Amino acid sequence: MSLVELLAAALLLLSALVVVRASNAVHAALALIANFLVIAAVYVGLEARFVAMTQVIVYAGAIVVLFLFVIMLLSAAQANVGKDLLPGLQVPAILGSAALAGVLIYALSRFSAPANPGVLNGGLPQALGPLLYGPEKWLYALLLVGFLLLVATIAAVVLVEPERIVPEARKPAAEEKELVER
Amino acid sequence: MQETVLLPLIILLPLLGFAVLGLWGRRLPEPVPGVVASALVLGSLLLGLVLLGQGGARWAVEDWIPGVPLSFVLDNLSGLMVMVVAGVGFLIHVYAIGYMHSDPGFSRFFSYFNLFIAAMLVLVLGDSLPVVFIGWEGVGLASYLLIGFWYTERVNADSARKAFIVNRIGDLGFLLGMGVLWAHFGTLSISELRELIAPEGEFAVGINVAAVSLAAFLLFIGAIGKSAQVPLMVWLPDAMAGPTPVSALIHAATMVTAGVYLLCRNSFLYFDLPDVSFWVVLIGMLTALYGALCAFGQTDIKRIVAYSTLSQLGYMFVAAGVGAYWVAMFHVLTHAFFKALLFMSSGAVIHALGGEQDVRKMGGMWNYLPQTRIHGLVGALALGGLPLLSGFWSKDAILAASYEYSALLWFVMLITAALTALYSMRWFVLVFMGKYRGHEHPHESPAVMTWPNHVLTLGSLFAGFVGLPYVVQSENLLEPWLNKAIVHHEHEKLPVLDEWALILVSAVVALGALYYGYRFFQAEAAGRLPAWFTRFQEASLRSFYADDVYNALLVRPLKSLAKILFDADGGLLGGFWWLGSATGNLGALLARLETGYLRFYAAGLLIAAVLLVLVGVIR
Amino acid sequence: MSWLVVSALLFTIGAYGVLSRRTAILVFLSIELMLNAANLALIAFARQWGSLDAQVVTLFVIAIAAAEVAVGLGLIVAIFRRRETTGVDELRGLRG
Amino acid sequence: MDALLHVGLFLPLLAGIALLIWPSLGRRLAVAASGVTFLIAAWLFARASGEAYTFQALLLEPIQMYYALRLDGVGLVLWLAVALTTLLAVFIAKVPTRMLGWALLMESGLLGIFAADDLILFYVFFEATLIPSLLMLGLYGGRERLKAAYTFALFTLAGSLPMLAALFAVRYLGGAPSFLYSDLAAHPVSGSVADWVFLGFLVAFAVKTPLFPLHAWLPSFHAENHPSGLADAMGTLYKVGLFAFFKWAIPLAPEGFAQFQGLLLVVAAFSAIYAAWLAFAAKDWKRLLAYGGVSHMGLGALGLFSGNAEGVTGALFLLAASMVYTGGLFLVVGRIAERTETLEIGPVRGIAKSAPALSVLTMFLVMAMIGLPGLSGFPGEFMALLGAWKISPWLTFIAFTAVIAAAAYALTAYQALFQEEQNRVVSDLTPREWAFAVAIVAGVVLAGVYPKMFTQMIHPLSEALAKLLGGGA
Questions:
Q1: Is the Cβ pair C91, B606 closer than 8 Å?
Q2: Chain C 72-91, CB below 8 Å of chain A: which residues?
Q3: Domain boundaries along the sequence of chain C
Q4: Residues B332-363: tens digit of each pLDDT
Q5: Where are the alpha helices (DSSP H) in D48-144?
């Protein structure tokens, strides 16, 4: 691992810690942007250039900005609101996270890469395109995801739409009297 | 023996009467239903006689239910019964036209009566056990309907129900007996069974004697129920709740003898089974004695006769048990005459007294009822065994047969015969002798009631002569004729001297007891009885507490257990509901884990993730 | 290989954030962090195997994350309108 | 012939739907539809030649499920019984018109149960019939109807789930290529699988037989249903357990049946005597008839589980016969309840005086129920006894003490209502009721006097089953 890489890793972990510990939500969101940008850089180093671009544009550019908007909109910059109803969770949270880290790293340590990996071609769009749009691979998944985005858009609009006044429900019609025959 | 469709017609005639009278009888004016019903029974009788004269008949539908035919046979045995059932039945039908006069249920009565005749003919003519069973239950139904004929009185309805239920106990025995025969012989046709079990007057080689014994015993239980033998005798006295012609026809002359007929018809099961036959003898003997003892205390004119019926049925069972099947049938025949006569004389007396049945309020009828007094006298003497009357000959035959079986049995039966003579005189004296103790204005019955009694009187006087002992007539009419249809062992005839001695002894005992009874019970009529006898009568009146014992030991415990179980069954459903709510409670318990804290769930997720990874890695 | 370790640590930190943060928005931020950790792992694996498929999947994750954020933030806004709070602990109407 | 089969099967369904939509069509439509159905059943019965009427069409290709009908002798007899009882029920019961529609829907389901030759199709009919039955109880029942409906639904569904599992197990573990009866029967499951499969079927069918202790839903089901007896009569028809054992459970897992046979015989015998005993303590007519029905089905089950030809024939005959007379009794009790405004035994007495024909009709049906020879109750009971005795005399003895108890409870209740001192004047049979009486009496007497007509249809199939079980004829 090169020095740059070590630096990047350190930055990642540091910014992540800021995200989860910062008392100001705006700071946390900004730290997340920093984190995402560093990850994008790492992606470039890992021969995933198109993904890196997407990461910058979609994640750092759109998503986190959306977060910032919402924080502003709700005036929710203050992170520690109200009373902590589960004060006892702090210690288990740390222990549990540590345990998770432990088992994950242990799991990774037992894993070995194949001897001769394939070629990534730098993860450029030319390489990804045929895969993404090839009907034999991911095309249908892509269409589905597109549809999902559409649905999510509509859902978001519906969710934040101001409440309408619902007209009073119709009273059920008087129960039909049934004929009793002899 | 011919195949003819006329045979079921014998049954269909009264059945037709049942249907027609049941549906439209109420629209007919009074005597018409009775006349129609009587005519149909007469038709059956004549048809039966014609067919019998042509040497019998049979008719069958194969595989009526799989493996079981619907078959009828008219041979000498069933022929005799047809004569008794349709013949005596016809007389009683005619009698009932007078007796049931102006009853609102007149047509209903004759409809039921015809149903009874039809069912009884099915029973008698059936050549496969299930067909016999149809008749068997059919007569039970008719008996139930007729005992409860005046159903608005609770006691009548109760008696009817009791008769049906007690009979059903016996019927279960019949059913299970058929089960045994079916399982071991694969057929229920009587003639086929006879071929399989006793082809040549002997049990077939290699036959399963235990199975035959069991079947015979179970069928015998059926006979016990139908013929009101100990211990299922409790229904018969109560059955007197029905109109008197019913008691005469069903509970004296025909239906109750069905048990005896069953034993004779299936004698191929019993004749070679000393164990089972011993039980038949024992039950018959106990019943004969018990019935006779109970008759002494009764105050109801019909119940006296009813207990005498019990006792006489016991005689018939003894005869069947000792292997003298023709003698049993002989007694069925003579008993039908004199017992029907006794009942119908009782009916005439009841009729004369406007419905009074208590003998303590009778007496002196000799002066009021010039025809019925003869009927009553002949009936009582025949029952009591006055020499030369029909009852004497058949009873003597039974005594002779039991003497061959065992001297002790003979002695008990002789004592019973003496008791019979005594209580028959008690009946006669209390009803006809002395001074009238009631307040009605007795009047003789109309001709439609007396003429049948005339015929029965002739029967009671002379029917015995068809079955004379061999010392009197070397070959009597009945024995060889019946034995063509019965499987039995030939008995050594008693020496002539012994036979004469037995006849003499029973004649002397009967005469003596009749005379002593005649004297003794004039004291009762006058209300002067020894104290010990009064105490005995009290116990006898309550039939030695048989009903109380049954109620305490069986009926009440079963009823209360039914109540307990009924509630417990509701609890069973409650149990299922409990199971349901227990599941619900468990769910509620688990639901407490759902705290509603998002982060609590997240912590759960985290732990689960750790564990999953651990499992994945370690595996 | 080492990036995988970094990814695991990032994931753990995100998980810690989910557990310790009390406002919905910050919990959501932590979830994004975890998603990215997963993405990083995918890219690292793609590199090691030389498989572009993993990169495609990463693209999908990003797209779906966008959809998720849109809906999730919409929910947060809608809830805030009604309950005047974004505290996750206060929203516990669904409890046993 | 095919067309008639489908018409018979679906005509009641269509008529029922029409009645639910347009109740003004009235009872005429219900009577006409069920009447035509009965005529079709009778026509098919009369024309039966020993070959079954069959029809097959592939319905769901991926799982090889067929729309397969097969109406053999047993099916025809049961069709006749169901069609007759439904006709009588919609003819006589005084109920809201829509209820007649539900009854017709039930009829279609029941006919389907007896005609289905594909296990999935059978399951569909078996479960679909539950819906109208539940709705009739829930919509038109008495005060506690919802609890009764819950109970009924829970018992039925709890039974159906294991059956669903068994249904898939029997095909896929048995290796049959489809759900057709012929395929499944050609590939019976064996070993412990057979045990589990049979157990699955057992639970479902024991609820519907019903056998102790799964009969617990029945008394409240009947007690809470509409007093007219329509729903009770239809519910009686729905007690198809014995048929289902005969057609599906036993042939598809004969080894499983052999494992459970002893236990089943004991349970059947116990059901018979236990329920008869309870009926004696029942205080209202519907519970009495409910327990009486359980008792009879216990006797039938004893015959069926004895596994020999006469026992099986007896069980199926008893099933068909009891549908008619028990259903008829429920309807008659409904008519009586309408006159006296109570179902309780006791308060009203002596009504035979004012309604003699009604009392005779009731007596007649009661006698049929307690198995009087010459009426339809007897041949079935008797054959069941003959079959069961071969297997276990003691159990037979115990179970058939129920016939004594039957006389006791039935006549006691009859006496209480019709006899003794009259304290109520009621009207006698109306012309409509006379027509009902004539029809049911004719049916009951025909089956009692000439059972051959029906047993000759049933017996060959029973013999086949007995042969399969190794018993022979």
A1: no
A2: 73-78, 80, 85-87, 89-90
A3: 1-87
A4: 999 999 999 999 999 999 988 888 888 888 88
A5: 73-92, 97-115, 119-128, 130-140
